[in-house]
Structure to design on (297 residues):
């Protein structure tokens, strides 16, 4: 059963979308100097260390048994596989199309949650996702041409399924503190990413440019630790499909931050696409009429 929408959940939802929106900009700066998987491994390795220190300072116990196995599986899905596939896709895939595909996460999470009997199929959620995807496609001006690399698109769709299934999985696992879940999950993912980076022949070099260090710092603290702790908090209060609407707000934040930090021009498409995105989020995640239905679920 999903809880009704509440102020702490709304604040966490908005903050997670804001922090996640800066990730693409941070990755863009990181990729200019670091090989992709190596950069991802550094990011999640450092984030895991930070979260483990927070665990120790807060005296949070390490999970055991099924809870530990679940946290490891969550990390491999939500961080390891997702970001391996995303980085591969971004080598050849247009960023706009990538953001549009990522906006399918709420629909994928809803369908997976329905299939696994966690949620009911809500027509408004399906409509909200489709409206939001149209808005994201408009805002990012995603190219819909025939020269789109099929393997890259399939990789991005795989990343969407991994994110969605990880969100659904959390609801079935023994309850674990969000800091602990992310600490264990990012540790497992970092090990996998380091192994993948080694297998890919990446250069294991630390950044030299100050901009890269700033980007990594953001990706570790705000883009990883804060974003995913808040995301798990929202999943626990709202359910997988609603929490996943974070991913349809991300492109708007990314475009604004890119214009500010990376001198990318703002276009008029933002004026038309952003309202569609917000309407989709409202229909799928925030509409008050959902509350009565949820209580009856």
């Amino acid at each position: 059963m999903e809880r009704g929408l509440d102020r702490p959940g709304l604040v966490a939802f908005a903050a997670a979308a804001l922090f996640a929106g800066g990730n693409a900009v941070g990755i863009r700066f990181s990729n200019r100097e670091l090989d992709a998987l190596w950069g991802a491994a550094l990011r999640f390795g450092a984030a895991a260390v930070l979260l483990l220190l927070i665990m120790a300072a807060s005296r949070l116990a390490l999970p055991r048994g099924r809870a530990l196995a679940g946290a490891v599986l969550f990390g491999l899905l939500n961080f390891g596989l997702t970001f391996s596939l995303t980085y591969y896709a971004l080598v050849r895939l247009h960023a706009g199309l990538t953001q549009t595909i990522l906006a399918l996460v709420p629909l994928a999470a809803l369908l997976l949650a329905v299939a696994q009997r966690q949620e009911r199929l809500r027509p408004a959620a399906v409509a909200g996702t489709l409206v939001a995807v149209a808005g994201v496609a408009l805002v990012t001006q995603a190219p819909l041409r025939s020269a789109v690399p099929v393997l890259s698109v399939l990789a991005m769709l795989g990343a969407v399924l991994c994110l969605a299934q990880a969100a659904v999985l959390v609801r079935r696992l023994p309850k674990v503190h969000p800091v602990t879940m992310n600490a264990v999950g990012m540790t497992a993912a970092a090990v996998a990413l380091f192994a993948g980076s080694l297998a890919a022949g990446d250069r294991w070099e630390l950044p030299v440019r100050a901009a890269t260090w700033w980007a990594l710092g953001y990706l570790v603290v705000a883009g990883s630790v804060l974003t995913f702790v808040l995301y798990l908090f929202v999943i626990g209060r709202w359910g997988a499909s609603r929490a996943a609407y974070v991913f349809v707000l991300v492109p708007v934040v990314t475009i604004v931050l890119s214009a500010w930090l990376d001198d990318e021009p703002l276009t008029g498409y933002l004026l038309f696409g952003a309202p569609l995105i917000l309407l989709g989020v409202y229909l799928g995640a925030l509409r008050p009429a959902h509350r009565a239905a949820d209580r009856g679920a």
In short: Residues 7-292 form one domain.
